[in-house]
Specification:
Elements: E1 7-8, H1 17-24, E2 32-33, E3 36-43, E4 47-55, H2 66-70, E5 73-75, E6 78-82, E7 88-91, H3 93-106, H4 114-127, E8 139-148, E9 160-170, E10 181-186, H5 203-207, H6 210-218, E11 223-227, E12 235-238, E13 242-247, E14 252-254, H7 265-276, E15 281-283, H8 288-297, E16 300-307, E17 311-319, E18 324-326, H9 334-347, E19 358-360
Length: 362
């Protein structure tokens, strides 16, 4: 399986230059898709096989496919960036490949070879290079996913799978990339529980967060922040992002990883960059009551969310059933701005990368 290689089958009817330009003029996020996709199949008899880069097309699925009944599926998210020389680069694809494997193992799925995972992303970026936006906030968002497509009814791990990567030309995740977001404190819903699938990137985690996200939207908030399921006391993460807190002494705090928190690649990158810049980063439990107290006393000066899609997004206000509180002046603080600049400069090849995170595709 380690030598699985994606063969190229070019789309015989790609979008015209004019159509592509019109779609990319204002792509938003996750609505404009490229001409190709990567696909590979797994069966118990043949292992992983039939790996191709081919025309993007609908997936035929039997109504009894296991994914439709038992939600056995996982996904990832990473980006390709346009570089100053007109080329493109990926950011830490090996970290996504490793997390994809970990998610598969948690969901009782046959892992996809990490080398082939990276090969699929690189070849898809290469063939759809014209879809990478050449704008400050633009990128090509890659969505690798794997589903159980074995046809059966009965609760057991499947023995047949599809691996697919699709790509989408995207702009900023939020309407104002330089602004702040307001988050809703979910006191009824929880995202994940100890022993559950919170550390795996699977659709069920996000489906279970949608009711809370809808509640947040009804309260005028862009995102929801979840507390732990056991005590309903400690801040864990947002609906789709990890969270950091900045204090007046310049230190940062982020909730420690557990089996109910997704190990974010952006989170890990921020911790590394912050420590290299001389900042102290603590990975500690942080109670919601402490958050309120620290903001009101002025001890906490900033808070921000982070993830592949949104990069770093400052949190300006927190709303809850009992009370609201504003963080700082409801504008992006200096620490969030500094870390975002450091991260984006590496992603786009504008600075020296001592970690090997920036990986040129062409």
């Amino acid at each position: 399986m380690s030598d699985l290689t994606f063969e190229i089958e070019s789309n015989p009817a790609p979008r015209s230059t004019e159509d592509r330009a019109a779609l990319m003029a204002n792509p938003g996020f996750g609505k404009v898709f490229t001409d190709h996709m990567a696909i590979a199949r797994y069966s118990a008899e043949r292992g992983w096989h039939d790996a191709r880069i081919t025309a993007r097309a609908p997936i035929p699925l039997d109504p009894a496919a296991a994914v439709l009944h038992y939600a056995q599926e996982i996904f990832e998210g990473l980006k390709a960036y346009r570089t100053a020389d007109g080329g493109a680069a990926l950011f830490r694809p090996e970290a996504n490949a490793k997390r994809f494997r970990s998610s598969a193992e948690r969901m009782a799925m046959v892992p996809f070879p990490e080398k082939a995972f990276i090969d699929a992303q690189r070849k898809l970026v290469e063939i759809d290079r014209a879809w990478i936006p050449d704008t400050p906030d633009g990128s090509l968002y890659l969505r690798p996913f794997m589903i159980a497509n074995e046809v059966f009814l009965g609760v057991k791990p499947a023995t047949e799978y599809l691996f697919i990567t699709i790509a989408s030309a995207v702009g900023s995740y939020f309407k104002d990339p330089n602004g702040t977001v307001t988050v809703w404190l979910s006191e009824h819903y929880t995202r994940a529980a100890p022993g559950g699938t919170g550390a795996a990137k699977c659709g069920g985690n996000y489906a279970s967060s949608l009711a809370a996200q809808a509640e947040a939207a009804s309260k005028g908030c862009e995102q929801v922040v979840f507390l732990d399921a056991a005590e309903r006391r400690y801040v864990e993460e947002l609906g789709g992002m990890n969270v950091f807190f900045v204090f007046e002494d310049g230190t940062l705090l982020t909730p420690p990883l557990s089996d109910s928190i997704l190990p974010g690649i952006t989170r890990d990158s921020i911790i590394t960059l912050a420590r290299e810049a001389g900042m102290t980063v603590r990975e500690e439990l942080y109670a919601i009551d402490q958050w309120r107290e620290d903001v009101r006393s002025g001890r906490q000066t900033e808070a921000f969310a982070c993830g592949t899609a949104a990069v770093i997004t400052p949190i300006g206000k927190v709303r809850g059933r009992e009370d609201d509180f504003a963080i700082g002046d409801s504008v992006a603080g200096p620490v969030a701005r500094k870390l975002r600049s450091m991260l984006v400069d590496i992603q786009r090849g504008n600075t020296n990368d001592s970690h090997g995170w920036f990986q040129k595709v062409f």
